[in-house]
Amino acid sequence: MRTAVPLLIVLLCPPSARAQDWRTPIALDIPARFEINLRGIPSRCYQVVRPPDGRLTAEVLGPGRWNVCIGDSRCPTDCMSGESRKASTEPLTNGSHYFVMVERVGSDAMATLAVYPTAANPARPALPTTWTAVVPAKNFRRGGYKILDNGGHLTLTSPDGNSSRASYSSAATIVATDWNATGTIRAGGRRIDWSNGGYWEAEGPAPAPRPVITGAWTAVIPAKSFRRGGYSVTGTADKLRFLSYDGASSSGRYLDESTIVAEQWNVTGKISPDGKRIDWSNATYWER
Fold first, then answer.
1. Which pLDDT belongs to residue 218?
2. 120 to each of 3, 49, 123, 138, how far by Cα in Å?
3. Could you tell me the maximum CA-CA distance found in the chain, to the nearest angstrom?
4. Rounded CA gap, 115 and 34, in Å?
5. What separation, in Å, do the N-terminal and C-terminal C-alpha atoms of the chain show?
6. Average pLDDT, the chain
């Protein structure tokens, strides 16, 4: 008598195999920019060679709610950050590879993933806060539109309270996800030409150029009679890196044209007009 193979076992094996497939890292050459489709799976992991300076950025562009995180020894189990469409590494990491994990948070399964050495990402122009919208074909012109930039994650708001999430698809292009429109940034960040035939122009006079703060600095703590060189600032207008004489570092960014924040050090700094002094919120200052 022949023994029949239980049908239940045959049916249960393929899903288990598929579950292993999406957890296996996929080798990726960088820089890379491509469409991802996570339909039917919660996440996907990609393995990339560590850039020489250790700095890597991964971000999801386009619609949907996503999480992105980067591991330096294996694929992260999960990103555990709630919802962050962009992640960057620090130079003081280990290993020869990075592992980029993309998690689908919402119902959307398709978007664009960009992975690139951080230094290769071109600087983005600083976008003003208030704008006037113009639609020539409809003889429409109205002020009161706003752009809030939170480290590259944008929120666009109209005067009647409508809003849209937006993100950079390149240094000169933004995508307004909820409005289904793409904008090309022109005139040094003072104009945005939209794919729907209209454009936005910045309100108010153009701001004075930001003082150049990259380079070497001397730190001064008046209350402790402390004065020491060996501090420095590197990076671009879009992303700064502050370095101490002892190797400690902090990422940072501009809050406005003359104010910066050192995020890991939890201090803000006011830059002098000539760019030769930074007064920090902890009663210290840097000079050069």
1. 94
2. 63, 15, 9, 40
3. 95
4. 9
5. 92
6. 82
Query: Which is more confident, 15 or 223?
Result: 223
Distances (CA, A) of 13 to 40, 74, 195, 245: 17, 26, 48, 57
Rounded Cα gap, residues 59 and 41, in angstroms: 19
**Smallest Cα–Cα separation from 112: which of 190, 34, 47, 32?**
34
**SS3 per residue for the chain:** CCCCCCHHHHHHHHHHHHHHHCCCCEECCCCEEEEEECCCCCEEEEEEECCCCCCEEEEEECCCCEEEEEECCCCCCCCCCCCCCEEECCCCCCCCEEEEEEEECCCCCEEEEEEEEHHHCCCCCCCCCEEEEEEHHHCEEEEEEEEEEECCEEEEECCCCCEEEEEEEECCEEEECCCCEEEEEEHHHCEEEECCCCEEEECCCCCCCCCCCCEEEEEEEHHHCEEEEEEEEEECCCCEEEECCCCCEEEEEEEECCEEEECCCCEEEEECCCCCEEEECCCCEEEC
pTM for the predicted model, two decimal places? 0.41
Residue 91 has pLDDT above 50, yes or no: yes
